[in-house]
Amino acid sequence: MTSQQFIQVVKEAGIVGAGGAGFPTYKKLENPVETVIINGAECEPLLFKDVTLMENHAADIIDGLQAVMDHTGARQGIVAIKRKNHAAIKAIRSRLKASMHIFEMEDVYPAGDEYEVVFHATGKRIPAGGFPFEIGILVQNVETIYNIRRAIHNQPVTHSMVTVSGAVNQPYTAWVPLGTPYAHLLEQAGGVTANGFVILDGGPMMGKVVEDLETTVGKTTSGLVVIPRDAHLAARKTQDERTFRRIGKSTCDQCSLCTEMCPRYLMGYPIQPHLVMRSLLTSDPLSKSLTPWAQACCECNICSLWACPEELDPRNVCATTKRDLKAQNMWQDAATLQTLMQPVHPVKDYRAVPTRRLMRKLGIAHLYRMAPYRDTLPVATELRLSLRQHIGAPAIPVVRVGDAVQSGDPIARAAEDALSVPVHAPCNGVITTVDDNHITLISD
Ligand code: SF4
Ligand code: SF4
Fold first, then answer.
1. Which ligand has the nearest atom to the CA of 205?
2. Rounded to two decimals, what is the model's pTM?
3. How many other CB atoms sit within 10 Å of the CB of residue 326?
4. Domains, in order of start, for the chain
C-alpha cells in the first residue's frame, strides 16, 4: 500500500482521535516522524477503556503501531502505560517487536495529557502552540491505533470502547455501537444507585456534565461516570459562566497556587491562571497584558478542582478567555508563544497529583470500583448517529429514509475539500430519519 493509499484507508474508515476532541486521524499521518507513541496513560479517574483495550487486544494494537511506524518511517514505537496496570503491561510486552518498548508512567493526573506523555517518554517538549510532529513525534490514543489496524482489514469505525462507572449497580467496560443512547448504557449497568444523578461524560476532571439521557455515543465517547446530583463535584462542574466569573472577581486573593500547581506551567509553558484571574478585576475584560496567559491552558482542571483553596474556577475562566481571545483576534501565534517558554520547573516532579488523593479531594473515592470488560452488550433498538463526531466539516448523508443498511456500510460521506470523515452503520437496520445533524436507524 502506498503512503497516499494508507492515508485514504484511514480516512475512509472514519477514524478520529478517540482520546481527545475528535481530530481526523488521516490528517495527523501526513508527516514523517522518528517516534510513534501510543498514549495508554488513561488518567481520568474511574475510566478503564484504554487499559481494557490493551489487555484484550494487545496483538492488534501492536500490529496497528507497526503499520503506523512503517507509514511514517518511525524508528521507534513507545507504548505509554501506567505502572499499576500490570495485566495490560504483560499483554503488550508479550507482543512487542524489536523497535518498540513500554514506557511505564506514575499513577498521577494528568499523566495522559499529550504534552506530559511526550515529555516523560522522550524528554522533549512539544513546541508551545505547535505540534508533536515538529519534534519528530506522533502520538495516538490506544483506540485510534486499534482502529487503524481494523481499517487496514477493511473494518470502519462502528463502535467505541466505553466505561460506565460511578453510582451504578454493575460498572462495566464494553464496545458500544455508535449512536447508542446513554439511557441504554445505564440500563445495562443495572441502573443508577443515586436518587438524582448527573453523568460526567469523559470523566470527573475534564468530562462535561450531561443530564439528557437521549445523548448518544460518538467516536470520542470514552466513559460515563455517574455521580449523585447533590455531590459537591456536580455543583462545582455546573456553575454557569456569569457565576464563576462573578465569584472569581470578588474572591480571588491572588495566592497563585493555581499557577504553582498547573502542569503546563510546571513544564515551562506560557500559562499563568492567576494572572488570567487578575484580569477579572480590571476594567478591560480582555486585558492585553493578563489574558494571553490563558492561551496554553489544556483545561485539565487541576487549578480549579485541586489547587485553588477558595474553590474558584480558574480553569473555566481560562477556557472562556481563550474563546474570547479568538473572537477578538487576540490569539498569539506559535512563534510568539515559543519566545515565552521557560525551563522545566525544578520542583515539577514533586507537584504531580496522585490519582487516589485526587479522587478523595473530588469526593468520589467511594465510587471507585473496577469496571470489568463485557464482551457482549445488547444493541439498543434505536441508534442516533451524529454527523459531527469529529472536528471539521460535518459528514454528508448518503442514505434515505427506508434504506436497509448492513453493519459497516457508509451512511454519510466526508465533506469534500474539507477536514472531514465519513460515518458508518454500527449494525444492520433500517434508516428512519435523516437531517443535517443526525441519522437515525432501527436495529434489526
Ligand atoms: S488559587 Fe484561587 S485564589 Fe489563588 S490565585 Fe488562583 S484562583 Fe485566585
Ligand atoms: S486547567 Fe488550570 S491547571 Fe490545567 S492547564 Fe489550564 S490553567 Fe493549568
1. 2
2. 0.95
3. 11
4. 3-152 (3.40.50.11540), 158-231+364-379 (3.10.20.600), 241-353 (no CATH), 381-444 (2.40.50.100)
